[in-house]
Amino acid sequence: MSLPLSEKRNDLEKSSLSPISSASSSSHLHPAPKRVYQKLISALIIETIISCAIYINYDTIGAYHPMLAGLLLGCSSGALAQSMNQYAKKKFTLQKILKFMLWGSINGYFTVGWINILITRIDNSAYRIIIDQLVGAPMFQLIFNMLNSIWDHGEMFSISTRLAYVKSLKYSYCFWPFFSILEFMFIPQALMFPCNCLANLLWNLILCRLA
C-alpha cells in the first residue's frame, strides 16, 4: 500500500533538512579552527603588549609598591605561557589562562619577597643557591600543585596531586638549579626578578604541559 502524497512530501522535507541540522549542531559543538586561531592570536598579542609595557615600566610600578610590579609581571607572563601552549595545541581554553594568571600573580608576589630575603639575609652566593633549591623550589612547586588541584578538582590534597608534585619537582630540578646559579652569580640585583620572570615564562610552558 503506497503512502499519501502529503506524507511522502513531509518525509522528503525531513530527510533533506536533517543533514543541515546535524551539520549546524556539529559546527556549534566544534567551532571552526579560524575562530580558535583568532582568539589565540588576539590573546597572544594582548598579553605580549601588556607584558612588555609592565617590563618597561617595572621600576616605576615598583616605586609605587615593591610587590605590585612582580605580581603584574608574573600574572601577564603566566597568561602568555598558557596562550603559547594553547596555540601549539590549537585549542583555546579561557579557564586555563585564568588559572595561570592567578598562579603567575601568586608566584610573582612571593618570588619578589623570596629574592629579597635571600639577598638581605644571606651574604654568600653559594648558600643562596643551596637554600633556593632546597627550600624555595619545593615550596613554590607545592603552591602550584595545590592551586592546580583546587582549581581542577576542588580539593587540596589527593593521590594524583602528590604524584603530580613529585613529577613536576623532578622536572624543576632539571631547570631551576642552572638558572639559580646564573641569577645569584652573574645577574645584578635590579634585574634579578625580571630575568626570573623570563625563566618563569619558560618554566610555565613546561607546567602547562604537566598540568
From TrEMBL:
It is a multi-pass membrane protein. It is found in: Membrane. Keywords: Membrane, Transmembrane, Transmembrane helix. It comes from the Eukaryota. Residues 15-30 have a biased composition (Low complexity). InterPro entries: Mpv17_PMP22 (IPR007248). Residues 1-14 have a biased composition (Basic and acidic residues). One of its GO terms (cellular component) is peroxisomal membrane. Its main location: membrane. Residues 1-30 are annotated as: Disordered. Pfam families: Mpv17_PMP22. The chain crosses the membrane at residues 36-56, 62-80, 100-119, 125-147, 168-187. The keyword Transport does not apply. PANTHER family: PEROXISOMAL MEMBRANE PROTEIN 2 (PTHR11266:SF80), PEROXISOMAL MEMBRANE PROTEIN 2, PXMP2 MPV17 (PTHR11266). Belongs to the peroxisomal membrane protein PXMP2/4 family. This is Uncharacterized protein.
